[in-house]
Structures are given as structure tokens and as C-alpha cells.
Amino acid sequence: xxxxxxxxxxxxxxxxxxxxxxxxxxxxxxxxxxxxxxxxxxxxxxxxxxxxxxxxxxxxxxxxxxxxxxxxxxxxxxxxxxxxxxxxxxxxxxxxxxxxxxxxxxxxxxxxxxxxxxxxxxxxxxxxxxxxxxxxxxxxxxxxxxxxxxxxxxxxxxxxxxxxxxxxxxxxxxxxxxxxxxxxxxxxxxxxxxxxxxxxxxxxxxxxxxxxxxxxxxxxxxxxxxxxxxxxxxxxxxxxxxxxxxxxxxxxxxxxxxxxxxxxxxxxxxxxxxxxxxxxxxxxxxxxxxxxxxxxxxxxxxxxxxxxxxxxxxxxxxxxxxxxxxxxxxxxxxxxxxxxxxxxxxxxxxxxxxxxxxxxxxxxxxxxxxxxxxxxxxxxxxxxxxxxxxxxxxxxxxxxxxxxxxxxxxxxxxxxxxxxxxxxxxxxxxxxxxxxxxxxxxxxxxxxxxxxxxxxxxxxxxxxxxxxxxxxxxxxxxxxxxxxxxxxxxxxxxxxxxxxxxxxxxxxxxxxxxxxxxxxxxxxxxxxxxxxxxxxxxxxxxxxxxxxxxxxxxxxxxxxxxxxxxxxxxxxxxxxxxxxxxxxxxxxxxxxxxxxxxxx
Length: 600
Prior knowledge:
By secondary structure, this protein is mostly helical. It contains 19 helices and 2 strands. Strand 1 (304-305) and strand 2 (308-312) form a beta hairpin. The longest helix has 17 residues, at 2-18.
């Protein structure tokens, strides 16, 4: 082998020195080069440096600049391999069709390239899926779209940087960071599908960034129908389209309270939001609810409140012409206000209480004179202002006790008997002036002054109970004569008549004050003074007479004592004296003047 090398070297030297080197080198070529090197086959210096094999790699890299770039940058397959001469893997001069860069497709480690296979890429078994036939391995495109163009539903609208969204694990799994765009996804937007905003055939970059671009259908369903403009974010946010988050209190001059918070926007905003500004006064929206038909003006808030239009509870009736007092404060509006024309309601009691007027207008319309606001049925009438002031037990009596008919209060008689006829035990005998005896404190406590009657009570009569003389309540039936009450006390058995007062007096019945000499024209002396009245007055007095007729001569009483049997006449006193009948005078007394009544 040594002589061969020596001969080859000699030939080369001769070729170089003689100018015939080209033809000589061609003659000494070990074989045809590959098709890619065929154009330089006769120019050995394109690949070889005389007597410097190490410099040959430089000549390779002069043509294969891309490999040279990989080596310098330590990228790609060549940049990652252990440094070695090019001829260690690639040899030439073995024919036009020789594969000087053989590749073990099954055992090739793709991690030695700039495109390590991961996930779904690692499961690809056929290299031609990515590496097109007739092209160098390194010419395989590294952009996703080159292989996934058929999978690009965006149709190139988003460019070729598929990896910004899609992963190697599975093409449909997009991991695009929307926050890196001009429209970061937040709230419900993060859950939305791409197609919800990015319509088919539309470039993603051209997707609208205003809410109405995607939510126009929601604007129609919501009922806004474009009336509120396209600034949906003024009310709606990304958390949820509903409910709206528009702060009417802070963002407008009309804070929503009570039921206003629950009403739909178009209840007040009937026209375009930025063209037709709704009024802030109640009647602007509630004109149809104004049952007063404008008669109370437009200050609806004076009565109605946001809690409910029909909930009327803050109207200050005290500021009106009719302050509400007592039970009026509990009454419902409709009790007095029969229609919505509130100012037409009368302010007089009878205007509302005509049905309650049991007097049927007989007492006029000044109901407040008796009835108060606390209760219609509890009157406060001052009876003292009438012709009949109430006192004593009358103050406790119910109206109906005297006023049987509510329509004739003024016709009620003022005399006691009209109400107390059932209490009149005298059976109208004592006329109707009951107050002469009875008081207002208690009917049974009579205070009659007997001194004003026809029979004044004096002496022992003052202590006597009424029933002792008045056997029945028909008081005037009581006799005024003493005998009427003292018949049982009449020991004379009516022989001395009925004028008991002639002898007896009111201090005490036994005290007799009759003077027989003065009152009876017959002075009693001697034994006569000791005689009982019945000894002389033996007969009952006839009607109308004080006593029965009694003779004034002695024989009238002493006939049975007349032992002479009338033989000496009737002038007994001629012999007998008054001291003792049995004592007889034998001497005739001197003649005396005749007594009254003596017979001549």
C-alpha cells in the first residue's frame, strides 16, 4: 500500500506542477460522486485541499452553509453531534444514486434536532407525514400550519403561529392566552367557546371588541332593542349577562328604591336612552296610575312611596284641612274618599257619617258636639249646655234610658214622671213634680219637706215613719184628721168626736190640754173634776159634731142617782153639791145668777 500512496502523491505533484493536474485528478478519481455533487465532480478542489485532510470539512461547509450555521450555533442535528469530520458519516465517489446521508428512520432520535417529538407528534410512525419526499430532512417545515393546514378552521386568518393556542398533546385543545390580546377574557367569557365570538370565516383579529358585537341577540331578547345604545358594559359585566350591574344610584341622578329596583328598564325608558330622557317626577311614569286625574298635582311622593304605589302610608293628613285624630287615624282612605277626587270630600262629620246618624238630622249636622274622634259610639256631649243638666245618678244613665227614640232627642220631656212613671208608686196622685221629694242621687232617697204640705209634721210626728200614716204610696189618701191614724188610741170610742187635737197635741198623745171650763163652757169642779169623760159623754158623737148632745142639767147624768125619781124636779143642784152627790144641803143656797143655758 505504501508504494501506491507514494505514486499517487507523485502524480498529484506532477499534475500541479505541470498544469495538467485537472485531468490527472480526474483520472485518479475513485468513482462518481452523488448527483448533488456532480457539477463539481471535475473540480476536486471544491471538496479537497491538497495534502490537508482536515481542511476538507471547511470545503464541505462552504457549500453546506446551513450545516455550518448549525455547527456554529450548536443547533440542529449537526450542531448537537459530537465534533467529527464530515467524512465520518458522509462518503462520496460511490455512484450517482448513493445515499451518503443514510438515516435510520426507526431508531432516529428526534431529540437531537431542533424539533423534538412530543405527545401526539411522538406517536406519528411515518416520517413522510411531516417530511415530504424529495426534500432534505431539514427542509421539513417547523410551522404548524404546514402540516395542519387542513385542521386550520381559521383558514389562515390567525397566521401560522398555531402553537400560540394549540398544544402537541391534542390539536383541538387550545391553550391560547387571551390575556395577551387586546381583549382579556374574564368571568363568563373565559367559559365561552371561541366560535361564540369568532364567527366562521371571520379573522380572529377582526372579532368585535364591543359587547353588542356578540350580544346583539341578547339585546333584542332583553327587550332593549337597541334603545340603550351599544355600551352594554354600562350595565352588564363579564360575570354574567344577567342580572345587570348598573348602579342607578351612583351613576344617575335618580336613585332607585323600593319597587323601583324590581321594575324593568323599559318600564321607564320607553325610547332611545341617549335621546329620550325620562322625567324624574313620579307622574312621568305613573300618569296612568294617577286615579286623581291630576287633581292633586304632580307631587305623588307626598302620599305614594317606592315600597309600593298602592301602599299609601306617609301622607301627612295633618297638613291638610282635616287633620286625622282618634279613630280617623285608623280609617282607610276609601272610607271617606269614595272617589280619587280627594279634595271633593266634605270636611263635615255628616258628610261621611250620614248612615251613622241615628237622629236622622233632627239634631242638625254638628255631630262633633256629641261624638268624638276616639269613638263614634262613645259620645262626649255635655248635657250641662242643654235645658236639662245631668247630675247624680243621671250621669251614669245611658242615653237610651231617657231617649228611647234617637230621632227625638230634643223632644224628650224634662219632667221626672216621663222617665220614672214606672217608678211612680203614687200612681200620679202627686202630679209630675217628682223632684219635690226625690233627688238625682238616688230615687229612693226622698227628701220631701212635710212642712210645705197640708199637714206639717211637728212634735212626735217628726219621728214617725211615713208608713205609719201613709198606708200606701198614694200619700194624699192619708187622712189629715188625728182619728185617721189614732183611732186605736181613741179611748173615748168616738164619743168625743174626731177633733182629737182639741185635747191632744203633737208632742205626745197622753198630754191632754183640754180646758173644760174654757173650751166646753162647763167648768169642772169638785167630784166632776175627777170624773171620766165617758161618765158624761156616753154616746158617740154624730157625724160633723164634736160630741153627742149632753144635757147641762144634773139630771142628764145623775138620773140613775135620783132617788126621788123626779119628784123634786131636775134642779138637783138645789140640794146636791159637786163635791159629793150624797152630801145634801138642807139650807137652800142663796139665789145666784143663772148659768148660761139654764132654763128660766
